[in-house]
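Journal club side-thread
Mid-discussion, someone asked how the predicted structure for our own chain would compare to the paper's figures. Pasting it here so we can look after the session.
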Amino acid sequence: MLKVHDNMLSLLKKYQRTIAILILLVLIEVVLISIPQLGFKWKSPLELSSKTQDAELKTAAGLPECSDSAVYECKLGPCDGIRECKSGRYQSCALKKICEPGAVSSCEEHGCATGRRTCNECGTGYGECINDNEKGTTA
């Protein structure tokens, strides 16, 4: 009897790490099985990203009724956008683009057309007008 006991202790010591890992895996499986029963649903990153636009539209639908041509400020990623009211409902968030992001165009600096300005990352406006002559370049 003592020999059997020693053999079991020897096996337990030998496979102690494996047994601990198996117990941990069983506990994880029990938790994963019980989560859906608690009402939690797993969502993949793809599902989450596609839901972002849906949430944006639902938010627009959840806004109060409005008078036509009313404007409500909103965010579209890092950009400031607006929701316009049409037929008593706010539309989805939109950007009023006036230029291509990163595009450079000429501008007037103190009444002279010698400057350049760069369109912002959202395409909704330009940065400061920089005078080419101040930088030592020629137009």
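Post-session note: The chain has three domains: 2-37, 45-90, 104-135.
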